[in-house]
Amino acid sequence: MLAKAGVLIVATDLFGVDARKRLERTPLSGAYAQRVSSLLHLIDILDAEVVTLAARIAAELRHDGGYRAIQALPGVGPTLAAIFVAEIGDVHRFADPGRLCSWAGLTPRHYESDTVVRRGHITKQGSKLVRWATVEAIQRKTTGKITADRERIAETARKEHREDRRGPQTAHPRLLRPARRPYPRPGQGRGVSSPDAAYAWSPMSLTSPLGAWSPR
User: Fold this and answer.
1) Residue 182 and residue 114 share a domain
2) Is pTM, for the whole model, over 0.70?
3) Spans of biased composition, class Basic residues (predicted)?
């Protein structure tokens, strides 16, 4: 709307207090002024509803220990905490953090044939709201360990020429489980005797079909 009217308001947050005042003082003509005024009015209505519902949620969950405890996680505020509590329920029904992550669909798909194991994208099974809330929290605030894990995974993916996989998405389960569960990542070759042996795989270990052939 502002672009159509040829107006540019330089602000980090266009809906912040300072930018809002500048927007209200901006001279606009005809339908542009009416449209901006209408949109600002709708924002005020929605903000009032958000405040009302947030207060009700806080009142409903004020005695819930899990609601208070989960807000200690980085990036989790009252709203996201309420989503986790409502969707997960009693967290003790999961034997360990890894099973909670699996239930939420934040663990990678597992493909296995004989001695070859491959990990794919996250399963995206379970509650969509839990995955959304986890992503929101991780984007809002992170920790040094999560950042280091994400960079390490992305670097490994680049070395394997798989830049489009696992980098950002595998950081999200770090919010739901306190410790990273290491999983094997086999190499590109076949005949790996064990998952751990995949880390030591090297193309130099394969024998050329021509052996020691020389044109001489």
Assistant:
1) yes
2) no
3) 174-183
